[in-house]
Specification:
Elements lengths: L15 E5 L1 H10 L7 H4 L14 H5 L15 E10 L7 E14 L3 E12 L4 E12 L25 E6 L4 H5 L12 H6 L9 H15 L8 E8 L8 E9 L2 E7 L4 E10 L1
Antiparallel strand pairs: 1-3, 2-5, 2-7, 3-4, 4-5, 6-8, 7-10, 8-9, 9-10
Length: 277
């Protein structure tokens, strides 16, 4: 049975430096579906410089992911929620200094829930972003720990038309592109690996879906202004396959917009909120 190593709680990584150029920015944008006519995300000679999608911080943060212990069985981990906070926009190229930490491991009985926090600063030391993963470790619960806080429901208002809605087709080779930004899990490319994970074919990365939603928010709500997105919290509720169509919708609420993302089969991101300036 999977076992949660509680000794990792509170241990911070050493500072990890992530350096990037406009090519990394453009590759990430392509990985989350940006087409040729969204020049502001993919063209280095865009007036004012290429714009960096706020969710690009996920590419940087991956480099500072903390150690979860020696006996981890990764096939039992499910990505439950993701939140990012942006304190300033990413420059078109630069250096990010990051630290990661396992903040909490909660006991949910059927599994353990890890809260993992990563903080990034610019090369000059200015606060750039924070990111938090909530990951469910199936079968690792029941150790008598704190069950953790409850989750606030963020449901769209019943019968109310969304304030914005934008649909993007996921290309058949989308996961192939997205993995080039660093997430090389074979579950998203290799049919045999997908079947071992319980899927009939490779699925899209959850953070690729998250990036599609971020891009839809920036384009559909913020008129392309990446500097206005301050935070985005989302819960993953179902899988996405290459070839699906992702529809991101938002309803104005206190503090921002409630977000929901759907495919043709149902809701894939729910309990989501974006905070804007």
């Amino acid at each position: 049975m999977p076992v949660a190593d509680l000794s990792v709680i509170g241990k911070k990584t050493e500072p990890v430096v992530f350096e990037y150029t406009w090519k990394d920015v453009a590759l990430y944008a392509l990985g989350v579906g940006a087409p040729h006519d969204e020049l502001h995300f993919v063209y280095e000679n865009t007036p004012g410089g290429i714009k960096v999608l706020p969710s690009f911080c996920m590419v940087a943060a991956r480099e500072a992911f903390p150690d979860l212990g020696d006996q981890i069985e990764w096939s039992f981990f499910l990505h439950g929620e993701q939140t990012i906070w942006l304190f300033r926009p990413f420059s078109p190229e630069g250096k990010v200094i990051q630290t990661g930490e396992v903040k909490h491991i909660y006991d949910k009985g059927k599994g353990a829930v890890y809260h993992i926090h990563i903080t990034g600063r610019t090369g000059k030391g200015d606060r750039l972003y924070d990111a938090e993963w909530v990951i469910f470790y199936v079968g690792a619960g029941g150790f008598g720990g704190d069950p953790g806080p409850g989750t606030e429901a963020l449901d769209p208002p019943t019968g109310v038309k969304p304030d914005f809605s934008l649909s993007y087709k996921v290309a058949e080779n989308q996961a192939v592109l997205y993995r080039l930004s660093g997430d090389l899990n074979p579950l998203h490319l290799d049919p045999a690996a997908a079947q071992r994970g319980g899927f009939d074919r490779p699925i899209l990365h959850g953070l690729c879906t998250y990036g599609f939603a971020t891009r839809a928010i920036v384009n559909g709500l913020l008129n392309g202004d990446v500097t206005r997105l301050k935070a985005f919290k989302a819960r993953f509720s179902d899988v996405v396959y290459p070839g699906d169509t992702l529809t991101t919708q938002g309803w104005k609420a206190d503090g921002g917009y409630i977000i929901e993302v759907r495919t043709e089969r149902g809701v894939v991101i729910r309990n989501a909120m974006v905070t804007i300036d």
